[in-house]
Design goal:
The protein is an alpha+beta fold and 107 residues long. The protein contains two helices and six strands; from the N terminus they run βββαβαββ. The protein is globular and about 35 Å long. It starts with 11 loop residues before the first strand and ends with a strand.
């Protein structure tokens, strides 16, 4: 497992206060077989364009891409959920807009 972000070497802080050390930058995604996008407290913010592009490139290359919890919003922002059935985070009550009619709740 390799942890990557736009800020390699800087710790990421989880919502429970746990700090995770980042191993590499987004270029790490170009070598991944599987990418897991974690949830984020900032689901209303637009994800960084560099992250969205890196996920799109990996997906086009055939990399398995999945999310945990609110990470679905990042996949949706990258267009990776378009035309797919999905269901996530009903408790937040916001519709996960993926530019189509396949539905799913997220928040």
């Amino acid at each position: 497992i390799v942890i990557c972000s736009e800020r390699p070497g800087k710790p990421l802080k989880a919502n429970n206060g746990l700090k995770v050390i980042v191993d590499g930058g987004l270029r790490t995604l170009s070598r991944a077989d599987t990418i897991l996008v974690p949830g984020s407290l900032d689901i209303m913010d637009t994800p960084p364009p560099a992250l969205l592009e890196a996920l799109k490139r990996a997906h086009r290359r055939g990399t398995r891409v999945a999310s945990i919890c609110a990470g679905a919003f990042i996949l949706a922002a990258a267009g990776l959920l378009d035309g797919r059935r999905r269901r996530s985070l009903r408790s937040r009550g916001r519709r996960l807009d993926c530019g189509d009619e396949t539905g799913g709740f997220a928040g």
